[in-house]
Amino acid sequence: MSEAARGRLVVATHNKGKLREMAELLAPHGFDCVSAGELGLPEPEETGATFIANAELKARAAARGSGHRALADDSGLIVEALGGKPGIHSARWADPTGGPAAGGGRDFRRAMERVNRELDANPDRRAYFISVLSLAWPDGGVKSFEGRVHGTLVWPPRGDRGFGYDPMFMPSGYNQTFGEMDPDLKHRISHRAVAFRKLADAGFR
Ligand code: ITT
After folding, report:
1. Ligand 1 pocket residue status of 165, Cβ below 6 Å
2. pTM over 0.90
3. Could you give the CA distance from residue 176 to residue 133 in angstroms, rounded to a whole number?
4. Which 3 state secondary structure label does DSSP give 150?
5. Ligand 1 center to residue 196 CA distance, Å?
6. Which segments in the chain show pLDDT lower than 70?
7. Are the C-beta atoms of residues 187 and 166 closer than 8 Å to each other?
8. pLDDT tens digits for 74-128?
9. How far apart are the CA of 164 and the centre of ligand 1, in A?
10. I need a surface site. Which of 59, 83, 106, 142 has the fewest CB within 10 A?
């Protein structure tokens, strides 16, 4: 479908790694994409208790603020042996104080070290990434799609591709971490790719 037919879509994230991945996933679909950051939209506080609540909150805020359709992602790493942590707090574990949005300066080496430390000698290294993609309209309508990818956590971290926890996450069936993997392959198998396929299958409507 042509760019004109698809129209403008705001990518409602302030995370550069995510923005790059979302733009690459959207590329074949012919949208005129612009990021929330480029439009100067504020970053809403993530007050939801679930991935879906936070994804919808971010998408709705961007759609209302811009007057265009907006796509947001709320995602995180779920470590089985840690009872699901860091979960919805995955970004927060990289903040300098370990607390809520401390104004940038995220350090994912620190966050990955914390995961590894809390796992200690636990032999259960299973984890999965989850992504909820929410598409919102300026009138308040919203639709959400969820994707997961299962794997195990390795230590030390490997690779400098991707972002966030990628260097310590090895997806099931592969012997490379997301940090080592060719981005094209990550885009075929990741949690975000799975959610994105569901969204594309729904026709963005
Ligand atoms: P926005 O809300 O502006 O989109 P954010 O980084 O605050 O950016 P989240 O609240 O959804 O986004 O945090 C999700 C965190 O989970 C993110 O910062 C990463 O650390 C981690 N994460 C999500 N997807 C990931 C991926 O594909 N690879 C590695 N880490 C990922």
Report:
1. yes
2. yes
3. 25
4. strand
5. 15
6. 1-5, 98-104
7. no
8. 999 999 999 999 999 999 999 987 555 445 689 999 999 999 999 998 999 999 9
9. 7
10. 83
